[in-house]
């Protein structure tokens, strides 16, 4: 039975988890995950940055493939520094779905392509 | 820009959505989705059946690939009748994660294999 291990995690447990960089700086937390209805793949983690929830808050959709879970830190680690996340594409809080037109996708993956992550839809 | 459309849905919006069969019988609702940490793919929808939440409640992990969203019904449709879902493998409410050992996976995909859905981890 030497099958690869495929640990599962419920989305409810992903949401709310901290996200930090490799230096240990906290960058935000996972507000939700966005699922591609066609493939069933998690396409993005939607990061929030604390502060007051509500109208006008910005979220950063980060390609899921950039995240690695670190059990010791109890956080997801991304290869991004604070400046990189601050400059990254954002979506408005009011549009956690419905924003994934071709232009948005290309902006997001154009930005994160430098970190070696390709489009999830190819 | 004739790219395929890849609509996204936030996990928070998936959770709580009704699940019915092709005849329109309501089978349950989605309690949560279970994500494969390795691939980032949604592996299972965890179905619940109403009733009292708490110790001892049973959940049915159904392969995500069996679900199709029906916008008119505002529900996911599965090719299962009520008897098929009642006889399907269950997990205990207290173990929404941690149950995906090789034996469980094989029981679940052994059961649902008749509906033409293969293991998500291959």
Task: Chart the SSEs and their pairings.
2 copies of one chain form a homodimer.
Chain A (H helix, E strand, L loop, with lengths): L7 E3 H4 L3 E4 L4 E11 L5 E7 L9 E6 L4 E3 L4 E4 L3 H5 L4 E2 L9 H11 L10
Q: Secondary-structure element sequence of chain A?
A: EHEEEEEEHEH
User: Most extensive interface, residues per chain?
Assistant: A-B, 37 and 37 residues
Instruction: Give the end-to-end Cα distance of chain A, rounded to a whole number of Å.
Output: 32 Å
CATH class of chain A: Mainly Beta
Give a short summary of the structure:
2 copies of one chain form a homodimer. Chain A is α+β, with helices and mostly antiparallel strands and 122 residues long.
Could you characterize what this model shows?
- 2 copies of one chain form a homodimer.
- Chain A is an alpha+beta fold.
- The first copy, chain A, has a single domain (11-114), classed as SH3 type barrels (Roll), CATH 2.30.30.
- Chain A has 3 helices and 8 strands, in the order βαββββββαβα.
- Chain A has helices at residues 11-14, 82-86, 102-112; strands spanning 8-10, 18-21, 26-36, 42-48, 58-63, 68-70, 75-78, 91-92.
- The longest helix of chain A is centred in the last third of the chain and has 11 residues, at 102-112.
- The A-B interface holds A 1, 3-4, 6-15, 32-44, 46, 64-65, 69, 96-97, 99-100, 102, 105, 121 and B 1, 3-4, 6-15, 32-44, 46, 64-65, 69, 96-97, 100, 102, 105, 120-121.
- Strand 3 of chain A pairs antiparallel with strand 1 (8-10) of chain B.
